[in-house]
Amino acid sequence: MLLLLEQLLNGLQYGVMLFLLAAGLTLVFGIMGVINLAHGSLFMVGAYAAAATAGRTGSFALAAIAALVASGVAGLAIEFLVIRRLYDRDHLDQVLATFGLLLFFNELMATLAGRTPLFMQPPAWLGGAVEIIPGVPYPTFRLAILATGLAVAGGLAFLIARTRLGMLIRAGATHRAIVGALGVDIRLLFTLVFALGALLAGLAGLMAAPILAVQVGMGEQILIATFVVVVIGGLGSVRGAFVGALLVGLVDTLARAFLPGLLKQVFAATTADALGAGLASAAIYLLMALVLVFRPRGLLPV
Amino acid sequence: MSALLETAGLAKAFGALKATDDVSLAVDAAEVHAIIGPNGAGKTTLIAQLTGELAPDRGTIRFDGHDITRLPAWRRTRLGLGRSFQITTLLPQMSALDNVAMAVQARSGSSFRFFGDARRDGSLRGPAAAFLERVGLAAVAHARCSDLSHGEHRQLELAVALALRPRLLLLDEPLAGMGQEDSAQMIALLRSLKREVPMLLVEHDMDAVFSLADRVSVLVYGRIIATGAPQAIRDDPAVREAYLGGQGD
Amino acid sequence: MDARTPVAATEPARRRHVALLVLFLLLVALPAIAQGIGQPFLIATFTRFVIYAIAAVSLDLILGIGGLTSFGHAAWFGLGGYVVAIAAFHVQDGSTLLGWGGSTEALVVWPLAVVVTALVALPIGALSLRTSGIHFIMITLAFAQMLFYLFVSVKFYGGDDGLSMQRRNTLAGFDLRGATAFYYVCLACLVAWTALCAAIVRSRFGMVLSGCRQSERRLSALGYPVYRYKLVAFVLAAAGAALAGALWANAARFVSPDMLAWVKSGELMVMVILGGTGTLYGPIVGAFALLGVEQLLSGWTEHWMLILGPLLVLFVVFARRGLWGLVGGRS
User: Fold this and answer.
1) Mind listing the pLDDT tens digit for each residue in C82-117?
2) A51 occurs within a structural domain
3) pTM (2 d.p.)
């Protein structure tokens, strides 16, 4: 029971991290019509910047700034140099060009930071554990991630529903051409949206650095899960990304935690472990396939 | 004599908008039946339901004795319900002849044939060339479809539709975007087809409608408000008010 | 008289035929050339290029001709390879799989690899083709990932570490150990597969597939059950990739889940685009170009991807036709 609670929280925490990434990805796709495979690279850049800065200075605050600045700058750079030229191209071209970026960033980080993983400690004031229910300690840092993620989700909801930028985002998600025709500086809107996505990715990287090993390739792993979230939620839909992210986070975490154990009831231990691990890894893809069969446009399409 | 194509109580709503509101329509086996109506009347929605691209909320569609309400588009074509498109969907990278040949191919046996050069198949090219001749496009048979003019596209649409040997031809604004001369040509062509194949024609061009149609139905806000011979429709006061604005066209 | 370009212009067609001939002759002469310049290892290198070319051509069938962007094509490549490796494993190991002791005869296991992969591709294609556009891209990716994780988790066949083959399959009793002999077998497969695809593209089926890419709506209106055609094409393409995978298992005498990774699918797509989508021969050139550049660059620097990544980006942004387009335009 306690294990279940802990895993539920882990699942939610993973979910909000996925949301930070998915929100940016879905906005970029919804408004600009661009599939960006390099989004995971921005996450990686943020994580590396955070880990490296924390290692150098010992300050979490500086690490946070570094993560956001690095991912923001990287984001603006790729928007200016590459993404802008992909607005009118078909998805295949976008996939390939951003795939090239992904390969480049991986190699860049490998060159700059080597291939051994970097590790980062959570800051002292967020270290340790908190008893969410008496007798059940849960790492403070993970709770902080959960809280931050939910706060950002709330902030995004406010931004989209209540501000002018948000209105443009909503309009752009459904009628890109019209927004341009209304005399809005489309270029600026696109750049802002992309930068927002990059910052969110950097923030996710900052949050991930103390939990995961910071290494080349960490972007790809979470990118695939992010795509699954975006497809499940509905392309261009931030609300969908939120629901999808929590769903994927929970399914993935709970499957990995409990599936091998459940299978042990039926199969021999070694088979159960291997099969369980395999099925658990495949769980979110099965989920996506199911969603697409019944709701081809996602759970909360725009 | 029962109708070739008939709908009964067809309805389709988009939220609060009733695009098709209880439409019961009948097209006989030897007529040219035109549907006219002001912009926004729901003509496109109606056509989409007849061809199978949109599922109605209520009502039935019968074609040649079969209930086709739930049939996918390709099955309706196989039953003999042919159509031309208003916004051209011709295959841009293929030649005019290729486009018609694809239609001929659809009617001549299986296309799950993996060998044999389709572009050199006389049994496809011959009839295709004949249809191009029929609509007056023999000269541009080998031109790339994307290079043809708008008027030629409309003619090609017709050739492709005819090549399917339809029992009923649904023409979605065949004169759309055409100039005076091209329109006159197309009207003459359609008139020459009158005895060969019954047609359901959706059009804005009043000259075309009144010179081609045996019967006219008027669609306004998703409802058919009148059906009858062209002259009767032209004189009908309700139609004048709703559509012709009391002045005629 | 109309001055509009007829669809089959003859001048570029002639250039294409000459280029194809030259390419073919060079490939046939390769072992001799390699021996001649004292670099016999090139034979093994080019064997790998040829194998990837087969996979690239198979992807072009659905991607370039059919307009179906599948991001999971590597799954078929990997599956084909694993069938061969598993069949050999059971012979080495002495154990049986569902009562079968395995085989190391190419004429048994290569067709088996193709058939098994086609059978797996059928339901996956049937489900995936219910979607289109970006959703199709994602769902094909998802299925490939599922297969990837499946192979990672089956420790019996090596899991993450992969599975090796002690020796290559025998072809009708002849062993394929010799680099030159094996190279010619692979080249023969490439020629045969490409010729088959070319025939398919010219046929009635190919016209329908090509029509689907240009306007699915039109094809439906003509009375074609579009879904069925796409499914058949999907399975055929998977079969071709499986053959490449089977050959790869022999070339490297090793298979691993990485063969099914989405990065591998991406590489295959790059080969197709680089060479020219929809041209069938372009992807061959694309495979050679990509792998060749990788080979060259990695000789100079360990960080060759720093150059290749941006090159790829530049290529996509500026070049619309692909390398084959430089020779003679679309086929």
Assistant:
1) 999 999 999 988 888 888 888 899 999 999 999 999
2) yes
3) 0.88
